[in-house]
Each structure stands twice: as C-alpha cells, then as structure tokens.
C-alpha cells in the first residue's frame, strides 16, 4: 500500500497553521509560571502542536491510498456429483484431491464447485454423488458468476457428459478454458426403461385425457414386456410391447379419466425383462390435478402486437388459466357477456380510434379486474378516468423511453429485489411523457428510469383496494424484455415471474378466511422439507400471532401424522420432513374468538430421478465443450500428464490496483492523537498546580 498527501489549497498555507499554533501557545504561556521555564516551554509546545494540527485539518488535505494486490491464477474443479457419475467419479476423487494439493503447491488458487453447492477440500471426504439431476450449464454459469473479474484461467469439469436438465453447456461461451475430464462408460447397458412420460399437468373432472409412455431398450432384441397404467394401485390398462431390435424405442398411449377432484396419482410400470441391468427405471409416477374449471382471462388488444404473443406465452405457462384473445382491428364484435372473466387485460384500450372504449365501461360496471397496458395508440386522458389508479398529464402526445427500476418498498407480492435489478439492463419501454400521479391505495411496483437517472414516476402500479382490482403498465414493449433477458441469462424467468405474479393477484378471487395454512408450493421433490405458511387474522383482517395450530398430514394409504405448533411473527412457517413420494392431504385447525377455524388442502412429493433415464456417457459433448472453449479433453489415464502440463504452463499472476481518496480529517488515529496531546497538557498543568 502506498499513501500520498494531496493539498486542496496552496501548500504554503501550512505556514499560517504553524503561526496560529505558535501565537496561541505564546499568548497562553507568556506569563511566568510557577512550574518553571522548562515545563512552560513543554506545555506551550503541546498546545502549539495541537492548535497547528487543528488548523491544518481545516485546510481539508486529502490522502490518496494506492493498494496493489496479487490475484493468483485460479483453477476450479467442477465436479458432476450426480448419481450417474457415482462409480467412476468416486474412484477419481483421490486423484482429484492430490491434483488440488499439487496445483496449490505450484502457486495456483484452487476451489471446487459441484452441482448446486460449493464443496471445499478435503475433496474426497466432502463430495457425495447423490444429485438427482444434472445441469452442467448452470454449474459452469455459477462458476462464471462467482469468479467474474477474477484471474480464473481454467475449469476442470469432471463428468460423464450426461445432461438431463437445462441446455447443453457446449452451446454457451465462457471467459475461461473448460478442460473436460471424461468418466463413465460409453457402451449402453443391457436395459429397458421408461424414458419419459408425457401427460397434461391438469385435466377436467370426468373428461378423458392422454398419458403417453416412451419406452427405450438396449441389447434386448427378441424379448417382450408389458406396460401397465395404474391409479392408486388399481390397474387401468395394460399393453404388450415386443422388443424387435437392439436399439429399441416405442411410444405407448393410454387414455385415463377421473371422477375425483384434486391431485390423482398414476403409475406406469414395465414388467421385468431377463438380462436387464437394473429394474429401478421400470417405473414412473405421474401426478395429474383434476379440476372443475380454470380461471378465465381475456386479452383484448387494439391491433396485432409482439406484446400479445409474449403475454400469451407467460399466461399459458400456467395450466390453471384459460386465455381468450380478441384483436379489435380484426374483429370489433362485442365480447360475449355469457362468459364471465376473472381478469381482462387491455392492450392499448381505450384508444384514440375509439375501438373497445364502450366495452371498458361495462367491465368497470361489472367490477371485473382490469390490467391496462398503454401504448402509442392509447387515449391517455380517457384511460385516466377509467383506470382509477394512475393519472398521466401527458404533454402534446410526446413519448419517453424509460427502463424499469423495482420499488423495494413494495411488499404485497414476494419479489426478489436482487433478481429484479436485471430490469434496469433491459430495453426501454415507450411511455407517455408528462406528470404522473397515483391515487390513494395504489402501490408502485416499478419506477421509471431515464438513462442513468432514477425518477419517482411510476411505470407499473397495482391497486387491490375497493371493489375492483386494477393494474396499469404505462408502456409497451414487454416482448423486448423477454428477448433481452434470454439473451443475457438463457432464461425467461425474471420478467415472466413479475407479470405472472401480477396476473395471479389480479385474477385470484378474494379470500376472506381468517385462518389460512398452505404449502408454499404444490409440488416438492423427494427428500425436501415441506414448508407450510400460516396466516391468522382478526375481525378487521389484521395479522395476529400466538395461536396453537394443529396440523394433520395424511398419505395415500390413509396413514396420518399429527403435528402441533405455535404461530409466531418471527417464524410464520412450519416445516415437515421425512415424507415419502406420493399425494398428501392435510387438515389444519385453530381456535379463534369466533370459534374453531379449519382449512385443508393437498400437495405432492415426487421422486423424479432423472439420472436413471440415461446412464450412457456422452464423451462427444465433452470433446465439443473443450474444443469450443479452447480447453483440453482428457481421460483418467491421462489426467496426471494433464496436471503436469498445467503446472508447466502456469499463467502469470495478475496485479490489481485500487485507489482511494479520503480527507485526512476522517482518519480516526488523528482524533486520538489530538485527545492525547490535549490530555497530556491538561494533566501536566494540573500536576503542577495550574488551572
């Protein structure tokens, strides 16, 4: 670290500081003192130094600190700890542990990354090959994020190349070399399995619905199997399949129906075949939610627009919604009143052409929740009078280009503020230029950001108070947000999650229950804790705490587990663990002043072991990944030579410098020095009888 003193005033002003200190000491200690000249000079010196230092600090000098650090060359071992790698991966852990020590002794900084967690040395003792799915792209993306801006030169990926979640990492670009260490067997096992099951997530009560099972077999030509569809152990249908070639694939279709509402458990099973390696992948469970009907949403737009497709995609991702689309410039016939909607999305309606404006008034009279999306053709003044949430005093039909900034004070929906920072990097929306005002009871979800300037103008608002719920998005261009998010993250989660939650809170029917217990998700993975959220309200719907809650959880066999817990403000959630896969129903109860309150529901624990679908190593993908990133493809036999070459070709360490400018007056040690000088002077004066 190097420090340098910088003056904001001419440096010769220090002379005035010294003169001020000397003058102050001279005037204070000029009279002859009882303690003698020697001590008089010492005390004058202490006072003069103190006053001179204070005057010097008033000049506002700066200290420039320059710190230089060495960023060592870094290597990350990315270990695919999925079940399919267990045998060959466990055998390699001793070599990997030795390689970590060897590279660290050569000056590298080495760390280890696994699927879904960061595993530190000792490597051989800490890594368990028990992950139920493999997403190599996500693991390498995590490495990229964790070491962004750091001197990471190489990643060594130990894997069998089997990817069953996310996209293939060979299609991504990384700012480091990915060296692939291929393990596993590329020769297919003698096996027959249910590769996949295709079915609807929801179905309607009493209707038939399809269930398709995809069967794959290797090396079992000439043999046969029976595939059976069961519901709660009861056989619904069976079909025979003849394996007619060494590499066999067949899709078997079933028809099923249910007369019971709720989540129904179906099982597809293959009869065993002599010679197959493992019967574990001969069974798959399917959970289908049988419902009476879906929530109905109408998307009414002035004209064709890319936003319409984007809104349709994010709505139809939820099977509980039924979406109708009406484009007025193509068909301006009135909306059928016989079909009541739970939510109406109005894209550029009301508009300057007058299309659909009268229908909006009828929606308002019927108290149907409305979501206004403004655009270039919107009649802003008319929209002000209809939406009752946001008023825009537009200026001469001018538009502005703004990006979005999440309002951290918005708490009505559970958003992650860190994730929503992505919105600030997305393309701007076109919004009316003018003054923005929100009505009472309206909350701002997104603010407008003009360039780098944060404004208090609302971009997206929500009002759930009163008799009608409304939301207003002041601009068009959602389709650009979804495209840009995918370009940056290879996903469309943040934007979709934002509008899906907004649509959910608008369309959901108001729940007036004072006691609510519900699982935070409808489906959990095997081995995962089931988390129940508890909410209890008084007569004016204020949250209250301290009540004892009884919770009964019943599995498909009728076996019930009973739990009791106290609802508290600090922990409004209750976790249940140790449940096997299947459909569960729960009932909760508590006592309030109004009497006994009860609530019930259901959830699913699924055991989707994707690792059993494919156990044949894919070295081709590993070679392609290494080639695209400039890395090296290697095998366990050549691993020691590869580590030796890494040590021989060790890249240079990187020097990083950081500079900081601070006012010297903020240095704490100066305060204590002044206190010490003044304290010493005061103590000596008192000791010698001075005042």
From TrEMBL:
<feature type="transmembrane region" description="Helical">
    <location>
        <begin position="664"/>
        <end position="684"/>
    </location>
</feature>
<dbReference type="InterPro" id="IPR036465">
    <property type="entry name" value="vWFA_dom_sf"/>
</dbReference>
<keyword id="KW-0472">Membrane</keyword>
<dbReference type="InterPro" id="IPR029062">
    <property type="entry name" value="Class_I_gatase-like"/>
</dbReference>
<protein>
    <submittedName>
        <fullName>VWA domain-containing protein</fullName>
    </submittedName>
</protein>
<keyword id="KW-0812">Transmembrane</keyword>
<keyword id="KW-1133">Transmembrane helix</keyword>
<feature type="transmembrane region" description="Helical">
    <location>
        <begin position="41"/>
        <end position="63"/>
    </location>
</feature>
<feature type="transmembrane region" description="Helical">
    <location>
        <begin position="12"/>
        <end position="29"/>
    </location>
</feature>
């Amino acid at each position: 670290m190097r420090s340098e003193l910088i003056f904001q005033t001419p440096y010769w002003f220090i002379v005035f500081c010294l003169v001020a200190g000397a003058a102050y000491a001279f005037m204070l200690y000029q009279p002859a003192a009882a303690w003698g000249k020697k001590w008089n000079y010492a005390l004058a010196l202490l006072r003069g130094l103190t006053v001179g230092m204070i005057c010097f600090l008033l000049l506002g000098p700066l200290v420039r600190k320059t710190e230089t650090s060495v960023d060592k060359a870094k290597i990350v071992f990315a270990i695919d700890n999925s079940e399919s790698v267990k045998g060959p991966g466990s055998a390699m852990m001793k070599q990997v542990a030795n390689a970590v020590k060897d590279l660290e002794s050569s000056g590298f900084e080495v760390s280890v990354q696994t699927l879904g967690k960061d595993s530190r040395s000792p490597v051989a003792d800490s890594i368990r090959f028990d992950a139920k799915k493999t997403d190599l792209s996500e693991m390498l993306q995590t490495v990229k994020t964790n070491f962004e801006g750091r001197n990471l030169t190489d990643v060594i990926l130990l894997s069998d190349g089997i990817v069953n979640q996310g996209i293939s990492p060979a299609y991504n670009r990384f700012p480091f070399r990915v060296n692939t260490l291929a393990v596993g067997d590329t020769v297919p096992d003698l096996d027959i399995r249910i590769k996949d099951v295709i079915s609807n997530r929801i179905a309607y009560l009493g209707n038939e619905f399809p269930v398709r099972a995809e069967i794959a077999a290797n090396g079992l030509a000439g043999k046969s199997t029976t595939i059976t569809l069961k519901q709660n152990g009861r056989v619904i249908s069976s079909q025979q399949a003849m394996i007619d070639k060494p590499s066999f694939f067949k899709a078997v279709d079933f028809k099923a129906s249910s007369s019971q509402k709720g989540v129904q458990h179906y099982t597809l099973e293959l009869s065993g075949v002599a010679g197959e390696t493992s019967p574990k992948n001969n069974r798959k469970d399917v959970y289908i939610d049988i419902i009476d009907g879906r929530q109905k949403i109408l998307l009414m737009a002035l004209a064709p627009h890319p936003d319409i497709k984007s809104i349709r995609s994010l709505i139809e991702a939820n099977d509980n919604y039924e979406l109708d689309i009406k484009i007025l410039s193509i068909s301006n016939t009135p909306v059928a009143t016989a079909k009541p909607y739970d939510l109406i999305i109005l894209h550029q309606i009301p508009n300057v052409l007058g299309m659909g404006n009268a229908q909006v008034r009828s929606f308002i009279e019927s108290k149907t929740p409305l979501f206004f999306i403004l655009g270039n053709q919107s009649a802003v003044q008319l929209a002000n009078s209809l939406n009752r949430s946001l008023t825009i005093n537009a200026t001469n039909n001018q538009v502005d280009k703004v990006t979005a900034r999440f309002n951290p004070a918005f708490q009505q929906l559970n958003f992650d503020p860190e994730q929503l920072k992505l919105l600030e990097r997305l393309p701007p929306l076109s919004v009316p230029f003018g003054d923005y005002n929100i009505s009472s009871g309206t909350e701002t979800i997104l603010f407008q950001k003009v360039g780098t300037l944060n404004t208090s103008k609302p971009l997206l608002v929500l009002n759930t108070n009163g008799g009608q719920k409304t939301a207003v998005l002041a601009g068009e261009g959602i389709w650009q947000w979804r495209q840009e998010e995918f370009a940056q993250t290879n996903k469309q989660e943040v934007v979709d999650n934002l509008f899906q939650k907004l649509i959910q809170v608008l369309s959901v029917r108001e729940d007036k229950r004072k006691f609510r217990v519900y699982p935070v998700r409808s489906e959990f993975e095997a081995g995962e804790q089931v988390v129940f959220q508890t909410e209890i309200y008084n007569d004016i719907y204020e949250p209250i705490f301290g009540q004892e809650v009884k919770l009964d959880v019943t599995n498909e066999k009728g076996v019930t587990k009973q739990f009791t817990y106290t609802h508290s403000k600090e922990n409004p959630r209750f976790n249940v663990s140790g449940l096997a896969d299947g459909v569960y129903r729960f009932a909760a109860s508590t006592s309030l002043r109004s009497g006994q309150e009860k609530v019930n529901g259901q959830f699913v624990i699924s055991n989707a072991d994707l690792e059993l679908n494919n156990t044949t190593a894919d070295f081709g993908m590993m070679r392609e990944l290494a080639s695209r990133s400039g890395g090296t493809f290697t095998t366990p036999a050549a691993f020691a030579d590869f580590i030796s070459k890494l040590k021989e070709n060790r890249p240079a360490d990187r020097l990083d410098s950081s500079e900081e400018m601070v006012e010297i007056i903020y240095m704490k040690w100066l305060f204590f020095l002044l206190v010490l000088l003044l304290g010493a002077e005061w103590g000596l004066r008192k000791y010698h009888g001075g005042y």
